[in-house]
Amino acid sequence: MCRHRVNGSSRRLFAHDLALIGYRQEVEVVILLIFMAVSSLLCAQMSPDSAADSLVSVQEWGNIEIEGSLSADSISQNDTLVFTVKLKLRGNPDDYSIAEPGAPPITNLSLIATSQANRTERSEGETHLIKEYRFTYVAISIGMAYVNPLRVQYVYIPNGESRSLASSRFEIEITEPIIPKKGVDWVVVIIVLLIICAGAILTFILSKKGRKNPTVEEEEIPPEKIARQRIINLKPGRNADISKSIDDTTRILSNYIFARYGIDAARLSKEEIVMSLEKHGIPANTTKNLDMAFAICDEVRFANHKATQTDRDNIELALESLLAFGEKTNPQQSKQDDIDDKS
Amino acid sequence: MNEEIQKLNERIAGESTFIDDMRTEFAKVIVGQNYLIDRLIIGLLADGHVLLEGVPGIAKTLSVKTLSDIIEADFQRIQFTPDLLPADIIGTLIYNQAKGIFTTKKGPIFSNIILADEINRAPAKVQSALLEAMQERQITIGGETFPLPVPFMVLATQNPIEQQGTYPLPEAQVDRFLMKVIVSYPDREDERKIMRLHGRIEIPVANPVIKPEQIMRARHTVRDIYVDEKIESYILDLVFATRNPAHYGLDELGELIQYGASPRATLYLRSCAQANAFLNHRGYVTPEDIRTIAMDVLRHRVIVTYEAEAEEIAAEDVVLKVLGAVEVP
């Protein structure tokens, strides 16, 4: 089946004031861009860099390994800190019975959330089970905070041996909350407010101007009319290269199906297009013609088929019957066509 | 139409009649699952192996068994377990005390169709033994090399819901499968038919309608199916879009794809599309054929990043985006 990219802009053509509409859109986009740039500048000044995992400790015994880590080595008051403990089990994970550890209490920090996740990982041909415990705290007061070792008790089931592993002790400094620098930030805030106000006024003026002029209303040209116009444009020189002519006609057909029925004929299979069109009430003889038209186009494009005049006629017939059905089932647009034609 | 393609079309029209017979026989035993059945036939025609993933009880094993019944081929089902050994699959040497020599005992892999049930339950060494055989199509036991029977096709199954105690197939091994097919539940009406069909005392059985020799002949014909340069470019665009998404206007996929599809994907997209054209009794490939099989060929060859996994973006989502973005000829 033939596929062509449907040109989105060809779906709708607005009869009047395209230039004015385009101008308004451009102004709105420019305002939005300025606003985004200024906002990002402001945000960059206000937010401190967040560090990646800065403290990590690893303890190991036999086939089990514990790794503790903090999301930062220094945080501000009211910021969050994530304490992550990973247990890495090698060999058969069913050999271990592990007591779930509780969240360690930390001075100056308040626990706000905990989570636990299991995942498997393969390295050096072995599968490891990784149990990950995450404790999220919020800094409630300024000073030093000490994260005591998290002790994990486990029993090695094959020999009943009970052991425990502990993560290292961490310390973290909690500093004063970062307050935006007054001088610079107020200027930026004022600039942003001014830009927003200016944008609002400009948009209001443009919309008012648009309302005064009744011709700004969008008038949609019926897809049947667009398709017919394109067929007329094709006629000169169509006999020189029939294969190209077939290719172009099928392109018009695909574009029309997309514009009228919203079916992406360029990407769907013949069967899918026909089934979708049948749902729109297209008569069986029309869909049969379309199926044949798409098959011819496939042969021309993908099987080196030397197209004939008859092939082209068949495709044009299929397109014509579909256009006729479209006009019949959209009488308002057909009426508009008649008015346009007479004028 | 081009004369050669015209002749090929006529040849295919004659040779592909068995496809309809196969579908009829499948329908006697399997209700619905046309997607799965088509993929099995494509795998058979494209001379590749298929990985089936789906929850238990959705006719994966029955479909494979029915396929072997239909083509009059030997069938072996190997249940993969953690204690399985490579010798349990490929065979071993046994000492014959009476004669004082070692004799070869061939394993179940010496069959036309192998169902490797729950392949991810066996350790890596067993998986490797099978996957090497899949690639080489021969087995070496005690220094002696034995070719595998022709046609030879491995259909492996995986259960997506149980991951504990499993050994996921490494990416390099998964790449050897022609297609990875996700098998889904039947719809309500199909399930009603299943209930009625399999509730009888007499269990339906498919009749053999095709011989292995016919399959081999069909494979030759499939390889002759015409692939236009535009179609070749489309295949290359799809594969390269998984490797360099930014070149195809898919900047957002850059961070989601760890590894793009391998050159095997290019080869298999072509051969599967040819097989799909054969299924439709056509002597040339269309973009529709590529799009029909692209997901099954690419989903296990596109490896997503950890970030993508964290955002619950699967390889299927990436492939869909690629299919949506790459221009169809």
Quick gist of this model?
Chain A is an alpha+beta fold.
Overview of this structure, please?
The complex is a heterodimer of chains A (343) and B (329). Chain A is an alpha+beta fold. Helices cover 45% and strands 24% of the residues of chain A. Chain A has eight helices and eleven strands. A five-stranded antiparallel β-sheet of chain A has the order 1-2-4-7-6, with no helix packed on it. A three-stranded mixed β-sheet of chain A has the order 3-11-8, with no helix packed on it. Chain A has a three-stranded antiparallel β-sheet with strand order 5-9-10, with no helix packed on it. Chain A starts with 17 loop residues before the first helix and ends with a helix. Mean pLDDT of chain A is 75; it is low at 1-21 and 46-54. By secondary structure, chain B is of the alpha/beta class. In chain B, 47% of the residues lie in helices and 15% in strands. Chain B has 14 helices and eleven strands. In chain B, the strands form four sheets. Chain B has a five-stranded parallel β-sheet. In chain B, a hairpin with a 4-residue loop joins strand 3 and strand 4. The longest helix of chain B is centred in the last third of the chain and has 17 residues, at 263-279. Chain B is globular. Chain B starts with a helix and ends with a helix. The model of chain B has no long low-confidence stretch (mean pLDDT 88). The interface between A and B is medium-sized, with 21 and 26 residues.
